[in-house]
Design a protein that fits this description.
It is built from eleven helices and no strands. With 271 residues, it is mainly alpha-helical. The chain has one domain. Helix 1 runs parallel beside helix 10 and helix 3 crosses helix 10.
């Protein structure tokens, strides 16, 4: 009996670690974390291990990785806001402004968006769309512009579209920023920092829903802690890697990967 429960525990922990690694890598690399998690859940038969509480824990891990990676810049921004420096206040307002389209869509069509997460074949198609868009960024002209109100709105609208599973949020927002002539480093910085209010807000809403309706996660505190730590550590190095790839102009190559994964999963789901 003891060996049976130990086996079940290790099986669940293994699935959580795999999902945490997927979340940490795909949240920041332009390959769609939501799309990969939907497909991983389907092919691993990990529905029971992937409850709402686990989703919050894994997203919280990636949120921490953003805060750690950009802690120095965030400290400068916060200090500038406290000193009422115009540039710092403007940057914070641009971040919040860019979140508005996604927030409006979440309130207007939240249930319809959730339904898409239960359609792996649709997710496969969206991954192929992501792949084609990423490949197209290879032809974006390099630029050194900063994010402004117009570009923040366009990036925000792109982020709204990326709420569909299979459409990469980082790939879409950084990609459109490249087409707008924004400096690659600043494009990544704006994209990742713009995700922090959404990640925090989604976690709070999910916690509220769990408090009201309960949760069937079925995972222990130790398993959730390990999932959080794995997601945070992997997420940190994923950000670091992507920023280096942007500097070397290799961002578009992820499009090939998305096309291959999308096509392969679509064929597996169809036959």
């Amino acid at each position: 009996m003891v060996s049976f429960f130990f086996g079940v525990l290790m099986d669940n922990l293994f699935k959580i670690i795999i999902l945490a690694i997927i979340q940490g890598i795909t949240e920041f690399l332009p390959v769609s974390s939501s799309g990969h998690l939907v497909l991983a859940k389907h092919f691993m038969n990990a529905e029971t291990a992937h409850g709402a509480l686990l989703v919050i824990v894994l997203h919280s891990g990636t949120l921490v990785s953003i805060l750690v990676f950009y802690w120095r810049h965030l400290g400068q921004i916060l200090g500038g806001v406290l000193r009422r420096e115009r540039d710092s206040i403007r940057f914070v307002l641009l971040l919040l402004f860019g979140c508005i389209p996604a927030i409006l869509l979440a309130f207007a069509a939240g249930d319809q968006l959730q339904e898409a997460f239960g359609r792996p074949r649709f997710v496969s198609c969206m991954l192929m769309v992501t792949g084609l868009f990423l490949i197209s960024t290879h032809y974006a002209k390099p630029g050194g512009k900063s994010v402004g109100w117009r570009s923040a709105l366009l990036i925000g609208i792109t982020q709204m579209a990326a709420m569909l599973p299979g459409i990469s949020r980082s790939g879409s927002t950084i990609g459109i920023a490249r087409f707008l002539g924004i400096d690659p480093k600043q494009a990544a910085e704006y994209s990742f920092l713009m995700s922090t209010p959404l990640l925090a807000g989604a976690s709070l809403l999910a916690l509220k829903d769990i408090a009201k309706n309960g949760n069937a996660c079925g995972s222990s505190g130790m398993e959730l802690t390990i999932g959080f730590l794995v997601s945070a550590v992997v997420g940190y190095f994923s950000i670091k890697w992507l920023v280096s790839l942007l500097r070397r102009g290799r961002f578009w190559r992820f499009g090939i990967y998305c096309l291959c994964v999308g096509l392969a999963s679509f064929l597996l789901l169809s036959f």
